[in-house]
Known about the structure:
- With 235 residues, the protein is mostly helical.
- The chain folds into 2 domains: 3-169, Helix Hairpins (Orthogonal Bundle), CATH 1.10.287; 170-235.
- The protein is 91% helix and 0% strand.
- The chain has helices spanning 3-9, 13-22, 26-85, 90-168, 171-214, 220-232.
- The longest helix is centred in the middle third of the chain and has 79 residues, at 90-168.
Amino acid sequence: MAGIFNRLFKAGEAEAHSLVDKLEDPIKMSEQAVRDLRKDLQESLKSLAEVKSLAIRMSKDADDAKRLAGDYERKAMLLLQKGQSGDVEAGEAERLAMEALSRKEEAAARALQTTQQAQTQNQMVANLQNNVNDLKSKVASYENDLVMLKARARTANATRKINQRLSNVDTKGTVALLERMKDKVSEEEALSQAYGEMADSGSSIDDEIDKALLSGGPSKAEDSLAQLKSKMGIS
């Protein structure tokens, strides 16, 4: 497994955090670590295939040796039978039968040894298969972690930018400016109201003056009526 990945994911938590803090780009380093893991997985699968192939060949060699031992035993029996029947001289038949049995023992010993080696190899295959399965699981897990890490990094980056913008805002200055604007608007409103009251007051005085002037003498109709009465001699 790649060295950087071992340090990132197998070191102690404090050491891992310290290492990540020193990385210029944790996302890129994590991506490289996952790529290294995938490469390790491919190499492990290749090794597993080679070990399986060797185990299969050993099992086949063991079976071949067992069959060969059986063949030599049958040949020894046939030789003894031919010696008994006279087809082969008895002494020669026994000599050849002994040679066949000797070869049988060699084949049987080789079969036993190869069988034991095949069993050991098969156990190695089982262990390696477990390791490969574990590595597959870790690769899948770390790939998912990397996806989450990227999402968290984007969120953290966006949050940091927003907080930086907020930290640059002069809150006190903004509040003070708003307060000054409120005071200014209040002053303008009060001044407008004062001018309105003054305008209303001026209009009322003019109305009173006009009314007083009009009510001070007779109207034109009253003058005409008085003249008509005088002409007719009516008092």
